[in-house]
Amino acid sequence: MTINFTQPGTGPLALNRRESLLAYLTTPVPEPPILTRAGYDALPEPDRNRHDAERIAFLSGGLVINTPSIARCKKELVRALAANSARNSGHAGVMLTGNSTMGKTTTAKALMRWVVDQYTVQFPEWQDADHIPAVYVEVPAAATGKTLMKVFADFLGLSVMVRDTADDLRVKVVQALRRANTQVIVVDELHNLAGRTPGVGEASDVLKGLSNDLTATFLYAGIDLTTSGLMVGPRGQQLSGRFTAVPLAPYEWTDPEQRKTWRGVIRAFETKCGLLDSAPNTLKPLAEYLYQRTSGSLGALSRLLTGTAIGLISGEGPEEFTQAVLDEYTLDYTSELRYARRDLPSVTARRNTRARGSRTASKTHLTPRTSEAIDAAKRKLTGEVDA
Description:
By secondary structure, the protein is of the alpha/beta class. The protein folds into three domains: 31-63 and 253-339, no CATH class; 68-247, P-loop containing nucleotide triphosphate hydrolases (Rossmann fold, 3-Layer(aba) Sandwich), CATH 3.40.50.300; 343-381, no CATH class. It has helices spanning 18-26, 37-41, 45-61, 68-84, 104-122, 145-156, 166-179, 198-213, 233-242, 256-273, 287-294, 298-314, 323-328, 333-340, 345-355, 359-362, 368-381, and strands at 93-98, 134-138, 184-188, 217-223, 243-247. A five-stranded parallel beta sheet has the order 2-3-4-1-5. It is globular, with a radius of gyration of 24 Å. This is TniB family NTP-binding protein. Residues 348-371 are annotated as: Disordered.
């Protein structure tokens, strides 16, 4: 197996700095042409190696599937931009919420690239005018008003003096963003503001103040924002009253429409992966298996399919999706644990009956075979080897 090292000067571009973000948004990773096995084998070896490197780079950082969630986010963002165009307070915004594997940051990146593409149509010379159509920052842990403003200043490349207060930095940031005609500001990791420390409250107030000072539309992203402490109290009421929440949740296999969408997403991934030996619709009969492996998480599905495809391209065997090959790819701990427990509804039932004090019923649910399966799954997840 070949190790794909990052070439000097070709590493992924950071999102949290102005120059690198705009470079990332304006120069997407190109999608390589899809070749047949015969066409690939006919290439000289240097061209084959180059094609493999291009495919791996695309799968690693360029592949984006336009899901219904992204389409809805675009619609809500357009509405918020229009509503904010002439307002000087109470600006509307959009909030991406979901657990840590739902692809919130991936969605935010797709939206920023779409905004920049649309902005370029209306303002073709925006780079010469030193505009910054989209901004991306992450809320640091235990954020205060000053540390949050410093994150914005660092993104913009502004000088920060030791004596600068949060208000001083806010003035600098607002002036810079106004000059840059910024349209969308993505604030990721917003769940870091769900605490109750005075500094966190101050940071929340600073964000609200920025929203009033700028015509830019804010796009918040974070883990379970609607169910965390972020929506509690006066600050939470202001947030919930101004922002439209777009939940990014797992697909439901029992819902016919979502099941249809899930199959369509898999088909799109299969086409984009461009494996040389994989016949069309190879993954169609594996749709339910893929759902079980990933618990319906789009982020986990993306990692499973692109990771497996990269392994096949880097290896020496046939480039074809099979369940056996997919089984060899290990996902994150949470996904693997859920997959190991997929056939164990009796465990939950047993706990419920114990809570009701029913000793007889609780002894009849867990079979020896199931117990052995649990133990084997635990050993696999912790790296132990069966005797």
